[in-house]
Amino acid sequence: MQTAILLYPGFTALDAVGPFELLHRMPGNETVLVAREPGPVGNDSGNLALVAERTLAETPRPDIVVVPGGPDVRAAADDPAVLEWLRAADAATTWTTSVCTGALVLAAAGLLTGRRATTHWMAMDSLAGHGVRTTGERVVFDGKYVTAAGVSSGIDMALHLLGRIGGDDLAGIVQLMTEYDPQPPYDAGSPDKAPAHLVDFCRGELASEVTPSA
Amino acid sequence: MQTAILLYPGFTALDAVGPFELLHRMPGNETVLVAREPGPVGNDSGNLALVAERTLAETPRPDIVVVPGGPDVRAAADDPAVLEWLRAADAATTWTTSVCTGALVLAAAGLLTGRRATTHWMAMDSLAGHGVRTTGERVVFDGKYVTAAGVSSGIDMALHLLGRIGGDDLAGIVQLMTEYDPQPPYDAGSPDKAPAHLVDFCRGELASEVTPSA
């Protein structure tokens, strides 16, 4: 089994590393970071780089694809080589997945048309604009297409996948080893729960940070 | 304000990237990945590398230090250059922090002696062996020393820090933008909650994966 996590300039680090950290612990699952070119790929803030170990061409048939998001996904969603790789890989994947605005990249490749899917709460309209049936759930399964909400939700998505692929005990062991027993000191993690003035602030001041290709 | 996240061969990726993703969103906080040498640093599984942008020598006075853990922290805990940098930086930090077995590195530098602290649940005895008063809490504050439990707990630690440094609204905005509204499909994230046979499995089969320098 091989899991390919796509990197592209401007990706959000935790979108990629959350699923990585859980999925690579599955026995027999080779987890590789892939990009158009090998070498360091810079994140959305420009102060972190993850190294792509393989090119897209070297990774033609992953069993699982994970597409992380970012505030601006055009480096992936407007790149014909990335879209072509996604379409070709998807033809043979067991699971095609995204975190956050990575769903906009899958949508740009035409893979989510008519499907139920989710994305970062601030990008929901953009995703709907691709003919996707958006939902407010944190992790959405539609057949083999699995999409997760914003940034940190990729951890929950990975646990769901581990359970489906390897069973509840495998998922539990990985949850225990990564001590994923979340205890956030605030309850502001979704627009339904956060104080209204914080939601308004994000929609206003920070909207330009989520300007997906739509 | 500057936050330095230490990288060393064998670190666990999510230990570093969880706090990174939240802390770098604090306005005016330059967040840098640092290591003894610049360039790619490989993780515990050998299939992910993060790029260290600065050397320890180039980062003498960070305001916040974050030390990630790993199944084997000897590359940091047995490196005199790392320990000397930690002690010198700590003399001027506002917060000195660790995630997971990163606490064993702080302890090896002598910074946790007699203090309350935590670590990965499987490394608790090793940490106690350094003269540390261990606790089962997920995030432990003892003055400016902040330690978090295993792997994913660094996200919770970062939220606590954001609240202390920038106030509840800042922490809430970052939680909302990273959509940290955890909904794990299992409740196996701590040894108190996981089924006993999974705890036993980890203690037996996987114990060699957590062999800290103690």
From TrEMBL, chains A, B:
Any Pfam family hit: DJ-1_PfpI
Annotated DJ-1/PfpI domain residues: 4-162
InterPro entries: Class_I_gatase-like (IPR029062), DJ-1/PfpI (IPR002818), INH-QAR (IPR052158)
Entry keywords, A to Z: Glutamine amidotransferase, Transferase
GO function term, MF aspect, one: transferase activity
Residues annotated as signal peptide: none
Any Gene Ontology biological process: regulation of DNA-templated transcription
Entries under SUPFAM superfamilies matching the protein: Class I glutamine amidotransferase-like (SSF52317)
Keyword Mitochondrion (UniProt): no
PANTHER family cross-referenced by the UniProt entry: ARAC-FAMILY TRANSCRIPTIONAL REGULATOR (PTHR43130), DJ-1_PFPI DOMAIN-CONTAINING PROTEIN (PTHR43130:SF2)
Full protein name: Glutamine amidotransferase
